């Protein structure tokens, strides 16, 4: 994906597989450095156009509700906007009230302050169509999923006017984590527990060994045998340092 900074026409690229910049920033959880904050967790960094705005309030409310689901998956959430730390603290109380959370409880994940717009510009998180009171582009609704190796695993970019679906973000994390450990791919609208697909690069003989639960191949008019399904593996496969595939049962 290529991001364009409309003010300077300077491009910055964040491609799948790139190591995510180890930026340092102030957040509602204190000063943080991305890689230290993540340690061996997965991370979701998501930007939003501004504090005290309606769509953002519903989004952060939903992300806060789902935060135990992200934790279960070893994923740390981080929100970001171009407002100040004090505004983030004040707004997070509104979000908790919107969620009908008990007054005084802490907002469950950090909100990063980027009032000098350094990160949104560096990471290409701007929506050129939506401007603030000073005519500056607002932050778009970016979602970056970062793996435990600190590499970018997925990015989705929404305009400021379209709220995200955090159930979908959980769903893609389930797919990313499954496919990180197993040589499978997930089909359209896949949900955990559904059958998965055998990727084209795996020859038939190897597929039979890799997927002892069976491989079903759908007959197609072309006669090509590329639509291959197998039950979702309940094993955890990992590459050793020699590149060998090691399997342990969950
Ligand atoms: C909102 O969060 O409600 C919003 C922010 C910027 C543009 C449109 C909507």
UniProtKB/TrEMBL annotation:
Reaction equation(s) it catalyzes: 1,2-dihexadecanoyl-sn-glycero-3-phosphocholine + H2O = 1-hexadecanoyl-sn-glycero-3-phosphocholine + hexadecanoate + H(+); a hydroperoxide + 2 glutathione = an alcohol + glutathione disulfide + H2O; a 1,2-diacyl-sn-glycero-3-phosphocholine + H2O = a 1-acyl-sn-glycero-3-phosphocholine + a fatty acid + H(+); a 1-acyl-sn-glycero-3-phosphocholine + an acyl-CoA = a 1,2-diacyl-sn-glycero-3-phosphocholine + CoA
Record flagged with keyword Oxidoreductase: yes
GO molecular function: 1-acylglycerophosphocholine O-acyltransferase activity; peroxiredoxin activity; phospholipase A2 activity
Keyword Oxidoreductase: yes
Active-site residue list: 56
Catalytic activity, EC: 1.11.1.27, 2.3.1.23, 3.1.1.4
Gene Ontology terms: biological process: cell redox homeostasis
Cited InterPro entries: AhpC/TSA, Peroxiredoxin_AhpC-typ, Peroxiredoxin_C, PRX_1cys, Thioredoxin-like_sf, Thioredoxin_domain
Entry keywords, A to Z: Antioxidant, Multifunctional enzyme, Oxidoreductase, Peroxidase, Redox-active center
Coiled-coil annotated spans: none
Gene3D superfamilies referenced in this protein's UniProt entry, alphabetically: Antioxidant, Horf6, Chain A, domain2, Glutaredoxin
Residue stretches making up the Thioredoxin domain: 14-178
GO CC term, one of those recorded: cytosol
UniProt record similarity statement: Belongs to the peroxiredoxin family. Prx6 subfamily.
Role: Thiol-specific peroxidase that catalyzes the reduction of hydrogen peroxide and organic hydroperoxides to water and alcohols, respectively.
Protein name: Peroxiredoxin-6
Gene that specifies this protein: LOC107568324
